Amino acid sequence: MEIERFIGVDLAWAQGGGPRARPNETGVAVIDGSGAVIDCGWTRGIDETVAWIGGVASGRSSLVFVDAPLVVDNPSGQRACEREVGRRYGRWKVSANSTNLGSPRLAGVLLRERLRAAGWVYDDGASGPPVRGLVMSECYPYTTLVGATELGYDQERPTYKRRPARVPTARWRAVRAAECDQLIVRLAGLATADPPLLLSSHPVSRRLAEEPSPEASAEYKHREDLIDALLCAWTAALWARYGLARCQVLGAGIPAAGLGTTARGTAATIIAPARPEQRRDGTGVRPVT
Question: In terms of domain of life, where is this protein from (predicted)?
Answer without folding.
Answer: Bacteria
